[in-house]
Structure of Dihydropyrimidinase:
Amino acid sequence: MRRTAIRGGLVITATEEIEADVLVEDDAIAAIAAPGVARDWTADAVLDATGHYVIPGGVDAHTHMEMPFGGTYAADTFETGTRAAAWGGTTTIIDFAIQPVGRTLREGVEAWHARADDNCAIDYGFHGILSDVGDGVLKEMDALVAEGITSFKMFMAYPGVFYSDDGQILRAMQQAADNGALIMMHAENGIAIDVLVRQALDAGHTDPVYHGRVRHPLLEAEATHRAIQLSKVAGSPLYVVHVSATEAVAEITRARHEGFTVFGETCPQYLFLTVDELAAPGFEGAKYVCSTPLRPAEHQASLWRALRTDDLSVVSTDHCPFCFADQKELGRDDFSKIPNGIPGVENRLDLLHDAVVAGRISRRRWVELVSTSPARMFGLHPRKGTIAPGADADIVIYDPGFEQVLSAETHHMNVDYNAYEGRKITGRVRTVLSRGEVILHDGEYHGRPGRGRFLRRESCGYLS
Ligand SMILES: NC(=O)NCCC(=O)O
Ligand SMILES: [Zn+2]
Ligand SMILES: [Zn+2]
């Protein structure tokens, strides 16, 4: 048995902050004890965490490695994307296995296993994407839940691609109410948006900024409202992904106050970037094309407030990188052809820690938003998302005082720009353990493709 002691740090979980030492035996946490008590531990390796935080590894519940979109593929493979995640302190990702239109869900899951299984440096799970709901797919959902794929994303946007109509959504929600799955919703009224896209292009408006203008906040709010009503009718829980608009937050808040099991997720891009980025000179704005879109700055106050009140419960990245040079370029003459997505899997913990430094959220809330809540919500807690005896030893030693500047020059994501280029951040990941193995320490990466394991997730973690 291999024993590693992490000594002298401040252990922070969603519920506690204690000065304690942590003992890791093989791949799991064996004990946490006050430094005096822990003095007698024998260990093969000691990691000095003096002056540092000791937190559970990040759980990013929303990534798109190698996702096909708009005639190209997201630029990070599972190999490059999970390596970048590890550099940023994330030790678990949950990616989306897409059902090809007209094919089975199973085919999508097998394709994602083929991409991920020998390539991930950290542990990983899958959600399913339902792009063609019918009788067969509903049955397949049951089988996948039994195999640990316990959540399914649906799209009210992108007609002709991933779009589901209200009847398909209701049927999938009814199935989820029966089988314990969680429906995740991309809530934008895609039919109305497509009308506005056509009108903008007909008027000669082809620049990236029009991506933001046609995806009106009220069309996010309307779809969010509709998804909530459908979930109430079906009696299923609902998780709304990448919430960006004040009006959509209000819909989630109201449903929660009425006692419905509705959750919301937002992403760093909506907290730290605005629609002004989309309006950058020339074609630069294409770097910031994602859906839901970046919003005017006033929406950020609602998002931060909802993160504090738990009306938004999770911060994921929606990491979906497309290179500026040759992929975003596909939409140079037509904003609707710009592949949608922003890179960020490496930057989430640091950006949110910077919000701790700025006094926006507490340290414990930071840990909860980036690790504990997503682990709970998606059936991984307490194996992931906490520091407790018996949990997987996915641990980050975090230097809260280190000053860094985010840049494509230094990041590890396989994409030629960083959405936060030049931003000064206080805090940096110093050491990362994944199931007890040190995969990053003092700027040296020791991970390897294929060491990450597929996670069969429990259902209904969000109800406990
Ligand atoms: N969000 C985005 O722009 N791209 C990824 C696909 C999605 O999550 O809708
Ligand atoms: Zn989406
Ligand atoms: Zn996404």
Observations:
- The first strand starts at residue 3 and ends at 12.
